[in-house]
Amino acid sequence: MNDKVAINLLNTGVPGLDQILGGGLPEFSFNLIMGPPGSGKTTLAHHIMFALATPERPALFFTTLGEPPLKMLRYQQQFSFFDFDKVNGSIRFVNLSEDVATANYDQVLARITQEVESFSPALVIIDSFRSAVLETSRQSRGALRLQQFIQQLGVLLSGWLTTAFLVGEFLSSSDPNPVLTVADGLLSLDQKVYRNSMVRQLQVLKMRGQDTRPGMHTFRITSAGIEIFAAAVVRVDAGEATRADIALKSEVRLTMGVPRLDEMLGGGLPSGYSLLVAGPSGSGKTILATAFLAEGVRCGEPGIIVAFEQTPSQSWVRTLDDLVRSGKIGLINTRTLDLSMDEIVQHLIHLIHKMKATRVVIDSLSGFELAVAPAFREDFRESLFRMITVLSGLGVTVLLTSELEDRYIDLRFSPYGSAFLTDAIIVQRYIEVESRLKRVMAVVKVRASVHSTEIRQFEITDEGVVIGDPVLAYEGLLAGRPTRTPAPETSERGKS
User: pTM surpassing 0.90?
Assistant: First the structure.
C-alpha cells in the first residue's frame, strides 16, 4: 500500500505564521510554545485559538498556576482578534490551579480527561504547562512519573483527535524535559533589548512532516495581535535565473527622468535591474531618485519609495507628495530604530502587489542601516542581498542610494561592500575647479550593456538634475583630487 496519509493543514490566522510553518498547522498535532516571560507565548496561543475556534470546532483553554482566567482575559480582550461572542461558547476556559496544587499527576490528568470528554474540543491549550510540571514534580506520592504523564497526555490528546498546545517558559530547546521530544511541533519565542530598541523573534525548531522555513523570524505584538515577518527566501536557482534573464532585461529600457542620463546608461536603465546611486551628502542622490519615480508615473509605471531620510526641499520635488496622496506613488516612511530587514521587505512586497508597482526606490542604505535594530546590523549585507534578489524576482526595477564619505583620496561605491549586488552603478562626486566645488557623475557599470564612460559635470536647479558636457578631466578626477584649466598650447614655431 503506497498511498500517503493526507494531513490537513489549519490556517492559524496569525499573519506570517502559516508561511513559516510550511502551509499551516498540522491538524491533530501535539505542539509546544516556549519562551521566556513576556515573549508573547500566551498572546500567540490566544490568537491561534480565536482564529480556529468555531461551534463545530470548539477550543478548551486550561490555565494552571500562571494567572486566573479573568485576569488573563482582561488583557487579552484588548487585541482585535478577541471575540466576546466565542467566550463560553466556542471557547471554554478551565482553571486547573487547585488540581495542580495537589502535586499529583494522576489528578491533573484525570481533570483534563474529564473536561475534554465533556466538551469534545478540537483544540486544547494548556498554559502554563511548565508551572504545572514544576509544582507536581515537588512530590511523587502515588503519581505517574513525568515521562509517563507527558506520554499519556500526548496519547490521550491524539486519541481525542485534538490539536494541542502546551505553553511553557522553557528557556531553550536544550531544557531537559521529555515534552520536547514527545511534541510534534516546537515554536520558540524570544525577545532581546538592545539599548533603546527591542527585538522579538520566533523560530520553528520542529514541525513533523512539514517543510518549515528555517531561521529566526521577526514579529511584533500590536493591537491586532501577533504579526510575523518571515525572512525572505532566496531560491537555490535564483542566481542562474538572474543571469539567464540579464540579456532579456537589457532589451527593455526605462527612462530615468533626467535629460542626458539615459544616453549615459546606453539607452536607459534595463527593466528589472537594480541601480546603486552612490555619492556624498548633498550630491543629488535623492533628487535623482525622485525624478526616476516621477518619470515612471508619467510613463504609467507606479512606483514606491522607502524613505529613511528627510525629503528634499526643492519646490519641484514637492510634486512627489501630490503623487503619494493621489496613490500613484507608494510611500514607506519610517525612522524607528528597531526594524528588521524582513519587516521592511514584507511591507514592500505587499505594497508592490497592491499597487502593481514596477519601480522601487530605497533612500538611503545609510538611513536603512541606522533604522535596523542593532541586533541585525552585523547581518545587514546578507539581508541586503536577500532583499535585492527577492525584488529582482518580482520583476521590479530598484534604485538604491548610498551615502559615501568624500575623502578626496580614494574611490568607493558602497560602505557595505555591496556594490557587486547591483546591476548598475552611478557614482557622484565633488571636484575642486578653480577654488570651487563642482559636482560630477559617471556610470561605472551596467551589466550586459554598453554605456558611457564619460565623466560629466552636473548641477541641481529648481528643475532638478541638469547634466552638462563631459569634463576635461585629468587622472584621478573621480577620486576628487583638484584639477586645473589646461593652458594654451605653445611651440617655438608659434612664437616665431
Answer: no
